[in-house]
Amino acid sequence: MVKEKKIRVLAAKPGLDGHDRGVKVVARALMDGGMEVVYTGLRQTPSQIVESAIQEDVDVIAMSILSGAHDYLFPKVMELLGEKGVDDILVIGGGIIPDEDIPALKEAGIADVFGPGTTTTQIIDYIRGNVN
Amino acid sequence: MTEHAGYEDLQTALKRWSEGVEKQLNKRPERKAEFVNTSGIPVKRLYSPLDGSDASYLSEIGLPGEYPFTRGVQPTMFRGRYWTMRQYAGFATAEESNSRYRFLLDQGQTGLSVAFDLPTQIGYDSDNEMAIGEVGKVGVAIDSLEDMETLFNKIPLDKVSTSMTINAPAAVLLAMYIAVAEKQGVSADKLRGTIQNDILKEYSSRGTYIYPPKPSMRIITDIFSYCTENVPMWNTISISGYHIREAGSTAVQEVAFTLANGIAYVQAALGAGLDVDTFGPRLSFFFNAHVDFLEEIAKYRAARRLWAEIMRERFKATNPKSLMIRFHTQTAGCTLTAQQPKNNIVRVAFQALSAVLGGTQSLHTNSMDEALCLPSEEAVQIALRSQQLIAYETGVADTVDPLGGSYYLENLTNEIYERAAAYIQKIDELGGSAEAIEKGFVQREIQDSAYRYQREIEKEERIVIGLNRFQVEEEKPTNLLRVDPSVRTSQIERLRKLRSERDGKMVEKCLADLKAGTEGDQNLIPLMLEAVKAYATLGEICDVLREVFGEYQQVNTLG
């Protein structure tokens, strides 16, 4: 019998935003859902996030921003992943992100964005359904 | 009801009544087997005079304006004048924020409350690499005294009181404010307002720290000492439970962790040789107004009583003003929903009413669109109108502490008081607030509560209208207020111009003096005042302190 490999997730706070309630709740729910979660803590630059993701060999990067800086920081993370030749990590975002910004983020390679009111079960199901 | 005979009759009557009700429960069951509030305190079916004791009225509740201030810090409360209506605002550039402030003052707002962007709050100039994507987003970008002059252009600083949500670099922004006032011809002793200046909750809940706890506490006591002498009407700190609650704590934890931080500041100031009755009266507080209406009112009352006792018993303060919690309140941003955002108007109105019934000194009401974006002018106006409605139409401001004496409210006030006091004892045992944060205790308690709250919503044990009950299909809102990304470019251009036009030698000298003072034990505020007047930038000043003090590394409390 092959033991199923646990999904590994990097929960990250890019930028200067200090709101970490959401990311901590999601991280804990993912752990309770059987995933391995590494939390970066606050104030991560895009390059720090990419470094951690590669070092920790994660399947997923889940980023949270409530300060409005997602329009710069999310695409920057995707750009740096691209430069490193990483294309097998599922990258998702959450926080206060206006709907009208989502198409551009998806264009940049963010798989999906989860706003206020999302349940942790929805995020767990999404990750399970979309990690290769 | 002071007669014991009356109580015996009541006991018999209640027993009979309860037995009658219990019999009916099979036929008419209650909605839940157990009713519990957000702090986990069980809520009984009925409260009566038996749930309090008349003997303790004077020592536990007392009269408004008198120890222990449970019923309010002033004898006449809102019969004298209403609370200060103070909407937190600021975005993009100093020009745009200045025009929002003048709009709010025109609309009848009575105090200003400045929101700074994150680079300003963390001591970075707009041209710093860490600031990319953040300039002007959650507040106004301030890089130098020049921006501050624009921010308060045509606003007479001797007429308004200004609250500034600034913590790690609070001393620098205070220095800028004093310098702007000086240019308007207003001396520092006329200035009224508040700097948040509460670093401990930044480590545990809000995240805009710069330096480690010890040097941060020194800056704070430098501010206490400087303001006592020079800016006597200024509130030197706003010890904040708001963000602790937003991070997920319960009402009890909000009171406990806030007052525990307060204890740490008082101890630091005493350690620096200050007298409790000189800085004590200038300490102010900041609480959240969350959804559980009566629990919130009880919370403010319990906090007043607990702080009065701490100041009198533990710190031997004798000036009545040192014993009073004067506090600002803001409605709970975390309870607003992105779904059916107009429902937020109603949520905010209930929360604001609880703050008024709890005796707040000033109030910010959130705007309905805050779960989506920065508030629009229309949304801010409705939020302000909600306060004006409570003040001018509802009649609740016409008597002091109108709900005082409610059997339930007095019982709940006691419960919150006792549970918060027990938490503070636990924090004392851990070595005080700074230690408890360093050990991750406070953060873990808060994140456990946040997780429990989310589980309750997902299991539908907690109902949030529009989110997990009474949902509708709705159109996504458009035309949200957004900050123009060119704000960073224009700030950078201003910085470049400033650096080329100012007296560079003077700036260097001021920064060198500041460095020497920082390495020694000189009060830092006069040195910062000289530096900002020479147009040294916020980032340059904070970098001097970073070099000497180092930077704080957050404790990871997950896993």
Automatic annotation (TrEMBL), chain A:
TM segment ranges: none
SUPFAM superfamilies in alphabetical order: Cobalamin (vitamin B12)-binding domain
Organism field: Candidatus Desulfacyla euxinica
Gene Ontology MF: a single term: isomerase activity
Protein name per its UniProtKB record: Cobalamin B12-binding domain-containing protein
Protein keywords: Cobalamin, Cobalt, Isomerase, Metal-binding
Domain of life: Bacteria
InterPro entries registered for this protein in UniProt: Acid_CoA_mut_C (IPR006159), Cobalamin-bd (IPR006158), Cobalamin-bd_sf (IPR036724)
Chain ranges of the B12-binding domain: 6-132
Cofactor list: adenosylcob(III)alamin
From TrEMBL, chain B:
Keyword Transcription regulation: no
Pfam family, one: MM_CoA_mutase
GO molecular function, one term: cobalamin binding
Cross-referenced CDD domains: MM_CoA_mutase_ICM_like
Keyword Translocase in record: no
Keywords: Isomerase
InterPro entries: Cbl-dep_enz_cat, MeMalonylCoA_mutase_a/b_cat, MMCoA_mutase_a_cat
The Methylmalonyl-CoA mutase alpha/beta chain catalytic domain, residue ranges: 38-551
Name recorded for this polypeptide: Methylmalonyl-CoA mutase family protein
